[in-house]
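ok, trying the design again with the full structure, not the truncated one.
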């Protein structure tokens, strides 16, 4: 049987911690005998939860037993807890004949003492301790703890044989938790701008297993599993994990992690909120006492010294605008993300746990995309210029369709760098990209800050077959020496050939 009885005696909890002091004893007394061996043939279950009472079924054999005069004792010793009931235990012969049965009167808290008369047992025979007993585990153990139950037969001359069975008492807080783990948040940032690594912090409600099997995606393209893409993943305590990523630049695209049911806690409980989760990307990092610059539209990672740390962001008193937000890094997280999108240009003061103060100066990058001609055919080129307030910066250009998706053709994405004059001229060949009729835009992303700028809509139409027309029958007749006015109409082409004269009149041009 199983109950929720929580029995704890200080001496037994201490015995459990050192796993060497035994707290309970079962003893059987009778005529003298000898024994040459002992073994645990069966014992189940071999673990129980703290604060519960578990029924253990067992069979222990003692070989080479010889009937004699005097008292014999069989001792059963627990590593901790108490024996609640042992009336299901018997001492039996090889043939299953009961020599004695434990009664409730033999139970004395942490010990059992039973006498038996083994008269009639064959010389050098085997006797058994068989049946079941209820053991109450101590409460509030610190972590899962294992220890031996010892079964010993001692004869009247003091010689004995023992067998041991290891049992484990489970810490419910560590392994018996029935509450499933929950994904909380994650952020990609650069904890130390002086090295060539960046970090991803993953936060869960508790410690989890198999995080390394989760898949990462950048702009919907697979990067591999967390274990494959990152150099290492370390548990910082509780449900906080820090993954180290090779490379000095934060990936400023759309970073996602796919969480599967294989992610569980120590008790085997599956993650409650599986699926694709967005990883916040913060290219700028600030800690207490630092003063950093961030371009408007980028995200700033405010890194504290501990989890669940209070954060306050407030516009500087010198600014002519108001802004205040109070929050925290969150459970099992040391990172608070300050999003500068839609924030005023100016200085912001950040208080970390009401003590250390950091400063973020939000500036305007001035990133723009200008298109030379917003109406073209699919035989033309899309030409334009990317410009900003700062030069020598890497940018990524993407040609997007009317759904906002990158055109699925090679050459639709351009990796570029602004010149010292903070400009970059680009060209997309509509014919090479096999563009259909429709509306398109060019998206520019500043790789260092994540700031984006999108062009006006570009209308692409079908060029069709080129035609040139001068009206009428296509032939204009005029007297020699006169001036002929010829109007040429072009359709779907920029070029045409006009022929003057013919071979028949002796003139052709």
């Amino acid at each position: 049987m199983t109950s929720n009885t929580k029995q704890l005696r200080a001496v037994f909890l201490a015995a459990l911690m050192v796993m060497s002091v035994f707290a309970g004893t079962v003893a059987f007394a009778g005529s003298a005998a000898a024994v040459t061996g002992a073994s645990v043939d069966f014992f189940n279950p071999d673990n129980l939860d703290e604060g519960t009472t578990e029924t253990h079924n067992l069979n222990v054999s003692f070989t080479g037993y010889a009937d004699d005069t005097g008292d014999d004792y069989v001792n059963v010793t627990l590593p901790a807890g108490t024996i609640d009931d042992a009336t299901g235990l018997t001492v039996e012969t090889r043939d299953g004949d009961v020599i004695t049965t434990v009664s409730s009167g033999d139970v004395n808290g942490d010990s059992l003492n039973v006498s038996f008369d083994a008269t009639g047992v064959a010389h050098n025979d085997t006797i058994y301790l068989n049946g079941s007993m209820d053991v109450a585990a101590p409460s509030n153990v610190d972590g899962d703890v294992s220890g031996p139950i010892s079964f010993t037969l001692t004869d009247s001359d003091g010689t004995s044989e023992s067998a041991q069975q290891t049992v484990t008492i489970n810490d419910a807080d560590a392994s018996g938790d029935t509450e499933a783990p929950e994904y909380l948040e994650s952020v990609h940032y650069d904890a130390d701008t002086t090295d060539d690594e960046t970090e991803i912090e993953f936060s869960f409600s508790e410690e989890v297993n198999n995080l390394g099997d989760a898949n990462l995606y950048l702009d919907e393209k697979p990067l591999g599993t967390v274990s494959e893409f990152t150099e290492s993943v370390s548990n910082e305590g509780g449900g906080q994990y820090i993954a180290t990523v090779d490379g000095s630049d934060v990936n400023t695209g759309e970073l996602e992690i796919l969480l599967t049911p294989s992610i569980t806690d120590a008790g085997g409980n599956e993650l409650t909120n599986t699926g694709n989760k967005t990883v916040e990307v913060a290219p700028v990092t600030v800690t207490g006492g630092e003063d950093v610059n961030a371009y408007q539209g980028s995200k700033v990672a405010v890194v504290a010294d501990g989890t669940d740390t209070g954060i306050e962001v407030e516009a500087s008193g010198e600014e002519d605008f108001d802004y205040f937000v109070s929050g925290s890094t969150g459970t099992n997280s040391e990172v608070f993300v300050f999003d500068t999108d839609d924030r005023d240009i100016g200085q912001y003061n950040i208080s970390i746990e009401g003590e250390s103060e950091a400063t973020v100066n939000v500036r305007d990058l001035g990133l723009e995309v200008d298109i030379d001609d917003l109406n073209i055919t699919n035989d033309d080129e899309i030409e334009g210029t990317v410009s900003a307030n700062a030069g020598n910066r890497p940018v990524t250009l993407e040609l997007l369709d009317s759904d906002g998706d990158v055109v699925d053709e090679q050459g639709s994405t351009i990796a570029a760098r602004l010149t010292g004059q903070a400009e970059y001229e680009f060209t997309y060949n509509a014919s090479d990209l096999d563009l259909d009729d429709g509306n398109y835009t060019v998206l520019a992303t500043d790789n260092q800050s994540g700031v984006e700028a999108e062009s006006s809509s570009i209308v692409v139409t079908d060029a069709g077959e080129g035609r040139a027309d001068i009206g009428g029958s296509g032939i204009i007749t005029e007297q020699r020496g006169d001036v002929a006015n010829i109007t040429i109409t072009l359709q779907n082409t920029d070029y045409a050939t006009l022929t003057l004269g013919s071979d028949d009149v002796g003139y052709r041009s």
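Keeping the full-length input from now on. The chain is about 5% helix and 50% strand.
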